[in-house]
Design a protein that fits this description.
alpha+beta; 30s Ribosomal Protein S18; two-stranded antiparallel sheet; 4 helices; 2 strands
């Protein structure tokens, strides 16, 4: 057991430092590099206009509860994410997509 003194604003706190061989909790996580950057599916397929009538494609960008997934999850560029949002909202109005899933 190793102790360390931490001083903050005239108060000294003695804390126990993590020791070797305590089990799986203190082991560092195995990091195998960075995750690959996601690519915009619309840019990859050379699609300029997101069609609101293509419900099967639009469903890929919605959660199982019917919410629109953010850019950081889908990997869309800003331009296509904006047009995707408009297309999903239009498809919901036309009853091609549900507002919520029960």
């Amino acid at each position: 057991m190793v102790w360390a003194a931490v001083t903050t604003r005239r108060i000294t706190i003695h804390r126990e430092l993590p020791s070797e061989g305590r089990g799986e909790k203190d082991m560092p996580r195995d990091r195998k590099g960075r995750k690959r950057r996601k690519v915009c599916a619309f840019c990859q397929d050379w699609i300029d206009i997101v069609d609101y009538k293509d419900a099967s494609r639009l469903r890929r960008f919605m959660s199982e509860r019917g919410k629109i997934l953010p850019r950081r999850i889908t990997g869309n560029c800003a331009r296509h994410q904006r047009s995707l949002t408009v297309a999903i909202k239009r498809a919901r109005e036309m009853a091609l997509l549900p507002y919520t899933v029960e």
